[in-house]
Amino acid sequence: MTKFEYAIEKTLQHEGGYIDHPADPGGATQMGISLRWYKEHVDPEATASTIIGLTKERVLDLYEKYFWKPEYDLIHEKDVAAKVFDMAVNMGERQAVKLVQRACQACGKNIEDDGVIGQKTLQAINSAEVDTMLAAIRATQAGFYRGLVMKKPSNEAFIKGWLRRAYS
Fold first, then answer.
1. Are 44 and 38 within 8 A, CB to CB?
2. Alpha carbons 25 and 165: distance in angstroms, whole number
3. What is the CATH number of the domain that holds 41?
């Protein structure tokens, strides 16, 4: 099983079928692909019906084309690569990478949180003890979600699922 296939399995544990929660700014979502994202990256004319009609195969194609980055294959530990990917699906790549870089800082690595996976970030990720790195990523991710709720109380509707995702 490739790292991408492993990451997909992990992500789909959090991204269920079709959801259209009124508090979700992404709008209608199918297996993690939101209408807002789809309109921006794939088809500006898409509707909720488009999202409802997305098949698992199509969603996997979108994940591979738009979300899986070649740098994730350079992360030695598949659980860390899967975590970075899952976060990118949930919050966007730049924010996900910033949080991972902050987790690296918490592990004593001297890197910037610029949101880009370059050689320094890869070295920091790969040189950290895996369990420590995963714990730091989880704590950083959970803190980010709690901050979202503090900034926008309507996000409280999502906090249980977000925290479950963060700590998985």
1. no
2. 19
3. 1.20.141.10
| Per-residue pLDDT reduced to its tens digit, 7-26 | 999 999 998 789 998 888 88
Nearest Cα to Cα of residue 96 among 51, 39, 75: 75
DSSP category for residue 117: -
Per the structure, the count of domains in the chain is: 1
Answer whether 0.90 is exceeded by the pTM: yes
Q: Rounded mean pLDDT of 137-141?
A: 98
Tell me the two tokens of residue 23.
Answer: 């508090």
Domain span holding position 158: 3-166
**Helices 78-91 and 159-166 meet at what angle, rounded to 10?**
160
Between CA 144 and CA 126, with CA 32 as vertex, the angle to 5 degrees is: 55
Backbone phi, psi, residue 90, to 5°: -80, -35
